[in-house]
């Protein structure tokens, strides 16, 4: 803390100042100087004027220390002070001094946080433009594995004050200082030492509750160890967030958390479709779909059935009839009858791994085509 900040705050109440430094080291806080305290140079002491005067009279105030003395009057001007100690004498009470001193500290902390947020945002912008940055100069230290988390309000007109409030809430939740605002989203570069499996090492249920409370969505990327891939993590999470507004994953564990793993197949299709359009100059991607799936699709349209959806979940469930029945809320025998009907229509061996993959990918493409591109076969 700069001494001039204290002088400015107490300009009307500072009677006397003897100072040999411009910066006051407040890391260890203020210590009340008690009658029998042993004074150490590593602390800043606060005491009332009578106690300080008594100590001074007994040569019990050492050199090279810092003292804030309160409840003073003009008689302090006649004191013979230790030649190399910093001593400031104030008219105010100890309670008043504490209150105003703490406010200076709070304002300083806020200014430091604001400066750091600006640094992180500027560095992130450069990173996304493909420039190399020194992470040690703009971000707090990372642990081994990094995941990018994007938090977006449902109402994109959320004001700056609301974002600041959300910043505090999620900084406390993640216990990670690498969080900042970028293009109407909160960006969290969450790090942990252990390689994550399906989830990171915080409570997804608790996060989902917070997101629900503040009407937010959060997209979570995979994790990696390499700084040069942080921009890729961001773009992957951002794409998952975009796709989630049109597509529903086959299995979604949390209502407001979008995990990239749940949308990875759609993201792969999204990348392929962009290249398809670039090469072919149209977006009629049904030419990438298995003819068997198109045949099932047309059968459903003609007979108002749901065989394609049954096939999709049957393959997702590893061809387990009971699991498929549970997911689709059907009786097991109903699923079996539908599978027999599907086999009679497409004439493809459903126990063949290559056939399974082709059919499953085709189902994903149809979902993307209808719900994201908003096209009809």
From TrEMBL:
Residues 307-363 form the PucR C-terminal helix-turn-helix domain. Signal peptide: none annotated. This is PucR C-terminal helix-turn-helix domain-containing protein. The lineage of its organism: Bacteria, Bacillati, Bacillota, Clostridia, Lachnospirales.
